[in-house]
Each structure stands twice: as structure tokens, then as C-alpha cells.
Design goal:
Blueprint: H1 6-39, H2 44-82, H3 87-115
């Protein structure tokens, strides 16, 4: 049996935590969702798909950003060990990888604004 890499174990752990948080937030937000569905002029099924799309946009972009930061950060630390003067340039690459999560959050906010 092949041993699991630390990055794979961390990614699996992050996925489990994300699923647990999503499940807990659905349990806690059920009364708020019921109130929103009752007050909304939209079809309840369309509203549910809208909430699911907003959650998926945030969750998937956050997972992708975490993976990108892990890959870019590892390469950046390796390059930084050889040439310390590249610090500012390498921070830009890590910041671009983190931007993926921000774009996903913006998309989910836009989806939720369309539902209101």
C-alpha cells in the first residue's frame, strides 16, 4: 500500500471539515431558510438551487485556492531558499492563488443578491 502524502492527507482533512461545516450550517440555518422561502416570490425549488449554487461557488473556490496556495507556496519556498531577493515577486504569486477564493466569494454574493 502506497503511503499518503502530507498534502493529500491535508486536502482530505480540509474536505471533511468543509462538509461538516456545511452540514452544521444547514441544520442551524433551517429556520432562516424556511422564513426566506416563505417570504420570497421565487419558486422554493429555484431558491434552494440558488442557495446550493452559492454554497458550491464558495466551497469549490476555497478548496481550489487552498490547493493552489499549497503548490505555489511549496515552489516559492524552494525558490526563496536559493535566491532570497525574490521574496516580493513570490508573494505576488501566492496572492494570485489566494485570489481564487475571493472570486468565488464574490460570485456567491452575486448569486445571493439575485435571489433577494
Amino acid at each position: 500500500m502506497k503511503p499518503v502524502s502530507p498534502a493529500g492527507a491535508l486536502l482530505a482533512f480540509a474536505a471533511v471539515i468543509a462538509v461538516l461545516i456545511a452540514a452544521a450550517s444547514l441544520v442551524v440555518a433551517t429556520p432562516a431558510l424556511a422564513a426566506a422561502i416563505g417570504a420570497s416570490p421565487l419558486d422554493p425549488q429555484a431558491l434552494g438551487w440558488g442557495f446550493a449554487a452559492a454554497a458550491a461557488a464558495t466551497a469549490l473556490s476555497s478548496l481550489a485556492a487552498g490547493y493552489a496556495v499549497a503548490k505555489v507556496g511549496t515552489a516559492a519556498v524552494g525558490a526563496l531558499a536559493e535566491k532570497p531577493e525574490l521574496m516580493a515577486r513570490l508573494l505576488i504569486f501566492v496572492g494570485l492563488a489566494e485570489g481564487i477564493a475571493i472570486y468565488g466569494l464574490i460570485v456567491s454574493i452575486l448569486i445571493l443578491n439575485r435571489l433577494a
